[in-house]
TrEMBL record:
The system is composed of three essential subunits: KdpA, KdpB and KdpC. This is Potassium-transporting ATPase KdpC subunit. GO terms for molecular function: ATP binding; P-type potassium transmembrane transporter activity. InterPro entries: KdpC. It comes from Pseudomonas panipatensis. Keywords: ATP-binding, Cell membrane, Ion transport, Membrane, Nucleotide-binding, Potassium, Potassium transport, Transmembrane, Transmembrane helix, Transport. Belongs to the KdpC family.
Length: 182
């Protein structure tokens, strides 16, 4: 019996070391060499070099002077990132959407869907350009800036990927707002 058990245990140990230690270390090393920014979380730094967030994860921005991101079912906590699992007919979902719409509403303009609905992860860092542009009037009023200047800022931060719709990273946009004019 030991003759059969010993090779099985050695095989298990070798495969565990190979797939549980060697392969992850190899992949991590290749990622660090080939894609260091992405491998370290796509961190966004301000002019002083301080980390302000990740380009991959949404953050809360409160106040009329900032561009707002999509709502988050997990309150922007990465541990509980997920959708709300509320069915379309659930009154709690309708109430949350109505509250989000009321918070973002501008006189006479329908609120873009991206500003009142959560994403699948609840942490999407991007908005469609129309959702960012919708907020320009509110921010222009709060910051005493020309709306055209803010619209140009949104346009400058609009990413147009080869495949998929155009998007605006809210963290990058708000960091540009926070920079003093030059």
């Amino acid at each position: 019996m030991l003759k059969q058990l010993r090779p099985a245990i050695v095989s298990l140990a070798m495969l565990s070391l190979l797939t549980g230690v060697a392969y992850p270390l190899l992949v991590t090393g290749v990622a660090q060499l080939a894609f260091p920014d992405q491998a370290n979380g796509s961190l966004v730094r301000d002019a002083k070099g301080e980390v302000r967030g990740s380009a991959l994860i949404a953050q809360r921005f409160d106040g009329a002077q900032w561009f707002h991101e999509r709502p988050s079912a997990g309150d922007f906590a990465t541990v509980s990132s997920s959708a709300s699992n509320l069915a379309p007919g659930n009154p709690a979902l309708a109430a949350r959407i109505a509250k989000s719409a009321a918070d973002e509403a501008l006189a006479g303009q329908p609120v873009p869907q991206a500003l009142v609905t959560t994403s699948g992860s609840g942490l999407d860092p991007q908005l469609p350009p129309d959702a960012a542009l919708y907020q320009v009037a509110r921010i222009a009023s709060a910051r005493k800036l020309p709306a055209a200047e803010l619209a140009r800022l949104v346009e400058a931060h609009t990413e147009r990927p080869l495949v998929g719709p155009a998007v605006v990273n809210v963290l990058a946009l708000n960091m540009a707002l926070a920079e003093p004019p030059q």
